[in-house]
Amino acid sequence: QSSIGSDPHNRVIVSSASNHAYETNPEGAGLPAEPINTRANTLAISEGEGVLGREATWDDFPNGRWGDARSPAYGEIDGYGVSLHMSVTQAVRLWGHPKSSEDISTLFIKHIRGELSAIPWSEEGLSPETNIIQEQLIELNTRGWWTVASQPAVNGVPSRDATFGWGPSHGFVFQKAFVELFLPAADWKVLSERLTGPEVEGTVCFYACNGNGDFATSDDSGGLVRTAVPASTNAVTWGVFP
């Protein structure tokens, strides 16, 4: 059992002491461990903050639209913090000067269709797997629901598959379908009623937050359901390598 916080690395693990006179115990080696699945860690992961958040947003695995501008893959962070790695001239050439929500929707749709190389939340082109859900993404953005990350569902595809594969040979990869998006508050009110309805509840997991910091989730640990239970883990990409 680890004795060092919720950081997944640099843990002191003492499974069994071979020399009680000279070896430390877990309690004496560090601070008592805290649960990893807390609401604070869930928020940190969703925002890419802290150790858990940085690992969650690292681009190790190829997802259809997971090109977060905060990713370390884009280079070193400068003294002004994370920012777009392009000049103002390049940004204006790409996006112009949108003046309405319809203008912004058009930019997102162009990005999904491959007509625009980047948006502020994704500084790279889309992966081939996005073609599978392209029409659904276009429909969402036409509504003004601006999608910044997404992936289609995959069930046991060989790890060497040209589109979905990753990792060593002879493995199998899995993905849950997910989408990360911005949407108007009025639309969220309608959508949340659908997500918590009997037809969908228990099947779809969601996390939602607004500019005021209000947080809602289908997880029993917080948000819409205020019960004192640990947060659950919801993996969206994983692999099995026999």
TrEMBL record:
Cross-referenced InterPro entries: MTHFR_C (IPR053806)
GO biological process, one term: tetrahydrofolate interconversion
Pfam family, one: MTHFR_C
GO MF term (any one): FAD binding
Lineage: superkingdom: Eukaryota
Gene Ontology annotations for the cellular component aspect, listed alphabetically: cytosol
MTHFR SAM-binding regulatory domain ranges (all copies): 52-242
Name listed for the protein in its UniProt record: MTHFR SAM-binding regulatory domain-containing protein
